[in-house]
Structure formats: structure tokens, C-alpha cells
């Protein structure tokens, strides 16, 4: 019984150490910290979006000044973004990895219900230094207000 107990204690210590050494990366942000309504777009060309209000930024991989997430380690990451559209101009956002299109979410102007929401998620294998950002699609508009319904988030699932 004593040998089994010693084994269990060593195993618990190994797992504690492994968890402590594990890289932790997670962020969640909205377009603005303000409670005021803020419109972005429409623009003639796709435009980088900066989600400047970080609810969390564990590992500091998301830059609230540029809107760019930079992978600190090689691993599998999960990203999600939500786009809310209450106005008569279409909205659309695309996620880029190192400048290349990956996925998008878009919505036509709201119909009878006066507002619509679109979202998308993706799981990606990233190399250290890979960059992820969101762009507002050309001729589209996005906005934010006190409800912070336009969000961008991501986290590291596991390292490779």
C-alpha cells in the first residue's frame, strides 16, 4: 500500500509540473470598450478590424493596437467571431491566416426582423509566429455599442 501511495504522489507531482509548464493562450475581445455607438465602414476595400477591448488576453498573443493574433507556439488553435448587423448596409467579416483567406461570416441587410447576427469558427494548426486577423469585407459596415455583440476570440487547444 505504501509503494502505491508513493507512486500516486509522484504521478500527481508530475502532472502538476506538466500543467504549470504548459503554455496558456486565450483571448476574447470586442470592437470597443465604449458604450457609444461606433460605425466602421463601408470602405471600397477590405479593412483590418481592431478589436480594441480585451475581456481577457492570457499569454498576450492578441494585440489590441493592431487586431492581430500572433501564435506564440506551434499548436492547434480555435477561433470564433460574431458579427451583428442592425442596419441597412450588408456586413461581412473574414478571417485571414498570414494574409490568406480562411473563413468568413456575412449577412445581407436585415429584413423584416430589423437585425441579424452571423458567426463562424475555425480550428487551425499554426506555426509559431503565424498571424490571424479579421477584416471587414469591402462595401460592408460593422458597428459596436454598449452590448458588445461583435466579438473575436481564440485559444490554444494543444501544442504540437
Give a quick precis of the structure:
With 160 residues, this protein is mostly beta strands. 12% of the residues lie in helices and 48% in strands. The chain has one helix at 2-21, and strands at 26-30, 38-40, 47-48, 53-58, 62-63, 68-70, 75-85, 91-97, 100-107, 116-126, 131-136, 142-144, 151-159.
The count of strands amounts to: 13
Mean pLDDT: 89
Secondary structural class: mainly beta
Distance between the termini: 37 Å
| Fraction of residues in H or I helices | 10-25%
Main beta-sheet annotation: 6 strands, antiparallel
Shape: elongated
What are the secondary-structure elements, in order, as H or E? HEEEEEEEEEEEEE
Model regions low in confidence, pLDDT < 50 over at least 5 residues: none
Q: Supply Rg.
A: 20 Å
Measured by DSSP, the beta-strand proportion falls in: over 45%
How many helical elements?
Answer: 1
Would you write up a description of this structure?
The protein is built from one helix and 13 strands. The chain has 160 residues and is mainly beta. The mean pLDDT is 89. The protein has one helix at 2-21, and strands spanning 26-30, 38-40, 47-48, 53-58, 62-63, 68-70, 75-85, 91-97, 100-107, 116-126, 131-136, 142-144, 151-159. The strands form three sheets. Strands 3, 5, 6, 8, 9 and 11 form a six-stranded antiparallel β-sheet that branches. It is elongated, with a radius of gyration of 20 Å. It starts with a helix and ends with a strand.
Amino acid at each position: 500500500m505504501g509503494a502505491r501511495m508513493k507512486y500516486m504522489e509522484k504521478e500527481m507531482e508530475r502532472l502538476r509540473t506538466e500543467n504549470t509548464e504548459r503554455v496558456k493562450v486565450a483571448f476574447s475581445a470586442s470592437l470597443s470598450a465604449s458604450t457609444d455607438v461606433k460605425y466602421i465602414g463601408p470602405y471600397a476595400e477590405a479593412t483590418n478590424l481592431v478589436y480594441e477591448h480585451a475581456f481577457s488576453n492570457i499569454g498576450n498573443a492578441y494585440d489590441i493596437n493592431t487586431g492581430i493574433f500572433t501564435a506564440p507556439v506551434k499548436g492547434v488553435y480555435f477561433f470564433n467571431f460574431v458579427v451583428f448587423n442592425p442596419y441597412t448596409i450588408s456586413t461581412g467579416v473574414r478571417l485571414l491566416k498570414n494574409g490568406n483567406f480562411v473563413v468568413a461570416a456575412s449577412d445581407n441587410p436585415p429584413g423584416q426582423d430589423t437585425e441579424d447576427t452571423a458567426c463562424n469558427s475555425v480550428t487551425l494548426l499554426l506555426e509559431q509566429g503565424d498571424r490571424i486577423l479579421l477584416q471587414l469585407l469591402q462595401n460592408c459596415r460593422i458597428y459596436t455599442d454598449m452590448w458588445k455583440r461583435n466579438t473575436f476570440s481564440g485559444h490554444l487547444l494543444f501544442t504540437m
